[in-house]
Design a protein that fits this description.
This protein is mainly β. The protein is built from no helices and eleven strands. The chain starts with a strand and ends with a strand. The model has no long low-confidence stretch (mean pLDDT 95).
Length: 111
């Protein structure tokens, strides 16, 4: 059974940085795309960043240039480096590897 375990969320002031991690067990990591989503209160879940198994990445416009998605295949881990955080980035962040989802981690950005 595949499990995704997220970590790295927390409270940070606007302008600060956080790095989210998502460690995967099982055998799906290398051959599937990975992505980070977020869901703010009262809003739909949105795709924030994605990376293919070949390493091609893409970002939603609101985070491009501030967030970076990356992977460490040796550790079966996908990361989301978040810089210059804004209050509007406050949400629960979820990782996805293939069809599997993490449990979510709260990111709160204060003004």
């Amino acid at each position: 059974q595949v499990q995704l375990v997220e970590s790295g969320g927390g409270l940070v002031q606007a302008g600060g940085s956080l790095t989210l991690s998502c460690a995967a067990s099982g055998s799906i990591f290398r051959n599937n795309g990975k992505a980070w989503y977020r869901q703010a209160p009262g809003k739909q879940r949105e795709l924030v960043a994605a990376i293919t198994s070949g390493g091609f990445s893409n970002y939603v416009d609101s985070v491009r240039g501030r967030f970076t998605i990356s992977t460490d295949n040796a550790k079966n881990t996908v990361y989301l480096q978040m810089n210059s955080l804004k209050v509007g980035d406050t949400a629960v962040y979820y990782c996805r590897v293939g069809p599997e989802w993490g449990q979510g981690t709260q990111v709160t950005v204060s003004s």
